[in-house]
Specification:
Length: 351
């Protein structure tokens, strides 16, 4: 039986800014772009009381909270502190799986500190993070990644939630289905069509029924509502996709998606793909519209083909003809076979 801890820093970017400038501690702040088309990365808990959230436009955030102060990002600083926090993690285990700068899984199954108590280990980690960085974090402790991650959000900020094996089913049954990683707004709507709002509502379905209704996600749902998650903590996560995107200064119309625009994107993608040197199996495109709704499309393909990208993007755009386009992205998904010869683009000139 594994002992897994999920550590999640509390409003990390905003917390760092408040640490650097104590005058910001008692005012609503957010971190992100303070422009007409800026987007927020995070906000402090005071701002969240007004409804300010990550991925919200700066304009909407200021409408909700006129006193909001938007701080520009200091990514180098955030990365430096994140490395400091990971050094703390290494004092307890080598099995560390970072999910981002501000959260990570730790497998402390073989850690002998505190008599091997994952609860005491987690509390000591939180204490050490605060003493060494002045920042707070929250922790979830359980026997697998799914339960630990969900639990870390229960007693935020600066809290901990422990779910022992004999409490897992009780813990999961009370959860709304949106708490399950991978269940976004689209999946929530699908589940609601079957009267499913809480994990307990899924128990009446067999694994075959869930797979028929929701594909692979149905199998995952069947396992998650039973507290089953066999994924190990992996300290070497291999990227499965590579993508690039651009946000326009002014929203564009579908007719403005042209070869020149795609050439610029594919050049950036090419630079990243050269470093990866992996076999391409899928071609992926993305559009974000002026109402912040995103749509994606992918197809099986072994190289980046501009004409195919253009065709897929136009197909997406035609689904929402009244909306202008805010962002465009292209990318690839990788296959398993080793590359014999790197052939990234269909055109001879590398575009």
């Amino acid at each position: 039986m594994r002992k897994i801890i999920h550590i999640d820093m509390d409003c990390y970017y905003a917390a760092v800014e408040m640490r650097e400038n104590p005058a910001l501690k008692d005012v609503p702040i957010a971190v992100g772009g303070d422009t007409e088309r800026g987007v927020l990365c995070t906000s402090n808990y005071i701002a969240r009381q007004y409804g300010v959230r990550a991925a919200m436009s700066s304009r909407k955030a200021k409408l909700l909270c006129p006193e909001l102060q938007i701080i520009p990002m200091q990514m180098a600083l955030y990365k430096s502190i994140s490395n400091q926090i990971r050094d703390i993690f290494r004092q307890y285990t080598d099995l560390i799986e970072p999910l981002s700068l501000d959260e990570a899984y730790l497998d402390v199954t073989n850690c002998t500190l505190f008599g091997g108590s994952a609860t005491l280990i987690a509390q000591d980690i939180l204490n050490k993070i605060y003493l060494e960085t002045g920042l707070t974090a929250s922790a979830g402790v359980s026997v697998n990644k799914f339960i630990a991650k969900v639990a870390s959000d229960f007693n935020k900020p600066n809290g901990m939630c422990v779910v022992p094996p004999n409490k897992i089913i009780e813990f999961v049954q009370q959860l709304p289905v949106k708490a399950i990683p991978g269940v976004g707004k689209v999946m929530q709507k699908k589940l609601n069509q079957y009267g499913i709002q809480f994990c307990a509502d899924l128990e009446r379905f067999s694994i075959k029924e869930l797979e028929q209704k929701f594909g692979k996600m149905g199998i995952s749902l069947f396992n998650r509502i039973r507290g089953v998650d066999d994924r190990p903590v992996c300290n070497h996560r291999e990227s499965k996709t590579t993508s690039v995107e651009t946000t326009f200064d002014q929203d564009i119309k579908v007719e403005q998606i042209n070869t020149e625009l795609l050439n610029k994107l594919t050049q950036r993608l090419y630079q990243r793909l050269e470093k990866e040197n992996k076999p391409i199996a899928k071609l992926q495109v993305k559009l974000k519209f002026d109402d912040f709704i995103s749509k994606t499309k992918e197809t099986q393909h072994t190289c980046v083909n501009i004409d195919l990208c253009h065709e897929m993007l136009i197909e997406i755009a035609k689904q929402r003809p009244v909306n202008k386009i805010r962002l465009i992205g292209i990318g690839v998904g990788y296959g398993k076979e080793p590359i014999q010869q790197l052939q990234l683009f269909a055109q001879p000139n590398g575009l």
